[in-house]
Amino acid sequence: MKLLQLLLLIFPLVLSSQSKVEINGKILSEEGHAVPFANISIIGEQTGASADRDGLFQFSLSAGAHTLKIQAIGYKTKTLQIDSRNQEERSLQISLAEDQLGLDQVVISATRNRVNLKKAPVVVNVLSPKLFNATQSISVAESLNFQPGVRVETNCQNCGFTQVRLNGLDGSYTQVLMNSRAVFSALNSVYGLEQIPTSILDRIEVVRSG
């Protein structure tokens, strides 16, 4: 009786080990390029795998019919039905289509040519000669005080050291350009702005996200 019980315990374990099969394959784009780090999950089961940088993957699966779900950033999600009992369906080559409309993009842009302010990728506020005359601003430092979010404040009463605060940030975070060229350092810009008359300026542009 003890021998029979031992055989009954071992037999299910053997069946369980034999019911698992190895599934491997490669994830490709429609152009034939490898899709790295795609996720492969089995619908209805707590198992799956991730492709490596070459698009290759491998995982164990129980014998039978399954539905695979393949996801990758920048590509449309794909579902694929396989039967792991079929030897030909244990080695897969899966092609994914690009999802150009569904991709959440991070766009980094820069412009060096003349661009209409309404079409510029960043917010630009312009101080014109009309504002200089209306506020009777003689220097650049005086005119900046009439721009929202910009403040020119004196830090030293003895030497007259001032700094330009933009959106509350310290003056060291503000850069001054003339004709798109950096002409002031972080130190002498606070003195130089007092020496530039508004009469020689065409306009002042304040870029808050440059």
Automatic annotation (TrEMBL):
Domain TonB-dependent receptor plug: 117-209
Subcellular location: Cell outer membrane
GO biological process: siderophore transmembrane transport
GO cellular component: cell outer membrane
A UniProt-annotated Pfam family: CarbopepD_reg_2
MF terms in GO: siderophore uptake transmembrane transporter activity
Main location class: membrane
Transport listed as a keyword: yes
Alphabetically ordered keywords of this record: Cell outer membrane, Membrane, Receptor, Transmembrane, Transmembrane beta strand, Transport
Topological category with respect to the lipid bilayer: Multi-pass membrane protein
Family classification: Belongs to the TonB-dependent receptor family.
PANTHER family assigned: TONB-DEPENDENT OUTER MEMBRANE RECEPTOR (PTHR30069), TONB-DEPENDENT RECEPTOR (PTHR30069:SF57)
Protein name: TonB-dependent receptor
UniProt source species: Zunongwangia profunda
